[in-house]
Structure formats: C-alpha cells, structure tokens
Write a structure and sequence with these properties.
81% of the residues lie in helices and 0% in strands. The chain has helices spanning 5-16, 29-50, 52-70, 75-105, 111-140.
C-alpha cells in the first residue's frame, strides 16, 4: 500500500466535504443556474435598496444607454459606449461588496479598512473617467 487507509480516507473526506465551503457548492445543472440567477437578482436589488451611489449610477445608465443606442455612431462605438457604462455598475457592485464585508468584520475605524474602501472608491472613479473618455473618443473621434 502506498498510503495508509486512514490518510486516504481523511484526504477523500476533505476533498468532498469541506467544512469551510457552502453546502450549495455541490449544486449542479439547471438548479445551479437558477440559484445563480436568484442570487444575482437579490444582489442587484440589495445594492439598489442600500447603496445611494449604485442608485445614482443606475439612473445614469438608464439615461446613457438609450442615448448611446440612438446616436448616429456605428455598432462598435455603441457597444463601447454601453460597455463603459455597464462597467461603472459592475465596479460599483464590487466596491459595495468590499465595503459591506469590511463593515461586517468591524465598524471600528482602522487604517486597513480605510485603505480597502478608498481603493474601491478609486476603482469606481476610474470607471467613471473611462466613461467620459470612451464617449468623448467615440463622439469626437
């Protein structure tokens, strides 16, 4: 025998039944897709309900995306304009998730908490700068 039976059994149990993983991890197939859709919709609703910045950026997207569709630019230009706006929403969702996780750990002021939140905020800022740059280049260039 290469391995003692106890070690092999422990390794196999660890690989299939990890105590640090969600019991939802084993879900597969259509149920997994339905669960993922439900979690995503709950996440969007939660962000819209609890995050002022996400609501503002969603309203901005609701205005800019139709404008991009009716502007007299080519398909690639429209796609770039819409993608830049959607990127802001994606980055804001990630920033909100970071802020929520940091706050879940502790509401105490700490330099690392501040750094994490500031870096997330900087990512949102850069995504907004990207919108301005993409729209300007598509419309002017």
């Amino acid at each position: 025998m290469d391995r003692p039976p106890r070690e092999a059994a422990a390794r196999d149990a660890e690989a299939t039944n990890r105590p640090d993983e969600s019991h939802f991890k084993g879900t597969t197939g259509l149920r997994r897709l339905v669960n993922a859709l439900e979690y995503s919709l709950h996440g969007l609703a939660s962000a819209f309900r609890h995050e002022d910045a996400f609501r503002q950026e969603a309203l901005l997207a609701a205005a800019l995306i139709p404008i991009a569709l009716v502007l007299g630019v080519g398909g690639v230009g429209k796609a770039m304009m819409i993608a830049s706006v959607l990127l802001v929403l994606i980055v804001e969702l990630l920033n909100s998730a970071i802020e929520t996780a940091v706050d879940r750990i502790s509401l105490d002021e700490h330099q690392l908490s501040k750094r994490a939140k500031d870096i997330g905020s900087a990512a949102v800022f850069l995504s907004l700068v990207n919108v301005v740059a993409v729209w300007a280049l598509v419309l002017i260039g």
